């Protein structure tokens, strides 16, 4: 856990350094979430991204589809919710990607467990 916390802190520092206009709210939390990719993908949709209809925005979870599975014993609502920002899928950062690029990245993933890094809003 200490190594994970150190990695998350470094990621936050790097992200803030790369975009000086980003000032994260104090009520957000970055955390890893492990999900399972099956024949239907990761079973959630994304909103936002570079060039979205609302302008350049972070990629966020738009909707969680029925059958969504996480590899942790808690329910999906505890792990991932609409509005959560998806920062990373596997080792790939989603910062600056268009929604289509993120979707193509998800399609190319092998079946099985997938590690996400998400910025949660509010208290867990």
Automatic annotation (TrEMBL):
Residue ranges constituting the PDZ domain according to the UniProt record: 32-107
UniProt GO MF annotations: CD4 receptor binding; cytokine activity
InterPro entries xrefs: IL-16-like (IPR055287), PDZ (IPR001478), PDZ_sf (IPR036034)
GO BP term, example: leukocyte chemotaxis
Coiled coil: none
Gene3D superfamilies linked: 2.30.42.10
Domain of life assignment: Eukaryota
Protein name as catalogued: PDZ domain-containing protein
Protein's organism: Chelonoidis abingdonii
Lineage of the organism: Eukaryota, Metazoa, Chordata, Craniata, Vertebrata
């Amino acid at each position: 856990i200490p190594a994970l916390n150190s990695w998350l802190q470094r990621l936050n520092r790097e992200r803030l350094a790369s975009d000086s206009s980003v000032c994260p709210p104090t009520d957000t939390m970055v955390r890893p979430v492990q999900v399972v990719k099956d024949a239907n993908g990761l079973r959630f949709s994304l909103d936002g991204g570079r060039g979205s209809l609302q302008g350049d925005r972070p990629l966020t979870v738009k909707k969680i589809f029925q059958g969504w599975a996480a590899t942790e014993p808690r329910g999906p609502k505890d792990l991932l919710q609409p509005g959560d920002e998806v920062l990373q899928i596997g080792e790939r950062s989603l910062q600056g990607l268009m929604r289509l690029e993120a979707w193509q990245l998800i399609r190319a993933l092998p079946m099985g467990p997938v590690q996400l890094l998400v910025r949660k809003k509010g208290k867990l």
